[in-house]
Amino acid sequence: MKKTLPEGYGRKGVLLATIEAERPDLVVARADRVWLDSDGRIHLEHHNAYVNTGLNNALDREWGLGGAAIGYIGVDNNSTAVTAATVYLHGASGATAANQIIKAISPAATRTNQTTTGGATFANADFTSGVFVINKIGLLNTSTDAGTGLIDVIGGTGGSSPYNRTFVLDLTGAGTFSATLQIAVTATSV
Fold first, then answer.
1. What's the mean pLDDT in 24-35?
2. In whole angstroms, what is the distance from residue 32 CA to residue 19 CA?
3. Whole-angstrom Cα distance, residue 13 to residue 123?
C-alpha cells in the first residue's frame, strides 16, 4: 500500500458564538450546531470557508509579497450566495449601516497551536433601524466592505460546497442582547 504524504496546507474556519439575551427563547438560529448552556446562554458553531481574496492574502503575507493582517469582523443581513470569487460581505457594493456592521477585532486575536481565533461583541446599540438579523459573518483586513478585504465568510444562501452553508441569527425578539462572535481559523496539513 502506497502512503500519500502531505503536499501542502489548508485553512478551515468555524464560527464560535455566545449570545446572552434577555429572551433567549425568542432567538432564532440556524447553524451547524446550536445549544443552550445551564446559564441560559446560546452557543452556535458554524463552519465557513476562505474566499479567493483571503487565500491570496495569506500567500502574499507568508511569502512577504504584501497583504494586510486580518483586523476586522463584520456582520450583514444579506443572504446572497457566497462563492470562492465573493469579494463583498454584503454580496455587492452598497451596504449601509442598517444592514452591515464591521468592528475591529477585540480583544486581540489569539493563537493556540495551529488555530487563530478573533472576533468582537455585538449588542443592540450597534444595530440601526431595529434590524437584528445576521445572515453573514466575515473576517476582513479592511474596516469597510470595499471589495478588497474579505478574507473568510460564513452564510449566504445557495452556492456550492464549501460555501453553501446557510446561516441565520435572528435577534429581533431577544430583547437586550450581547453576541460575542468569533471565527477560529485552523491551518492543517493536507
1. 96
2. 16
3. 23
pLDDT confidence tier of residue 76, bands split at 50, 70 and 90: very high
What are the two backbone dihedrals, phi and then psi, of residue 30, each rounded to the nearest 5 degrees? -125, 110
Query: Which residues make Cβ contacts (< 8 Å) with residue 9, sequence separation at least 6?
Result: 187, 188, 189, 190
Query: Which of 16, 48, 62 minimizes the C-alpha distance to 150?
Result: 48
pLDDT tens, 119-135? 999 999 998 777 799 99
C-alpha cell at 116: 487563530
Specify whether the CB–CB gap between 19 and 35 falls below 8 A. Answer: no
Cα 114 to Cα 101: distance, rounded to the nearest angstrom: 28
pLDDT at 5 over 80: no
Average pLDDT over residues 47-75: 93
* H helical segments located in the chain: 52-62
Closest CA to 155 of 135, 139, 140, 169: 135
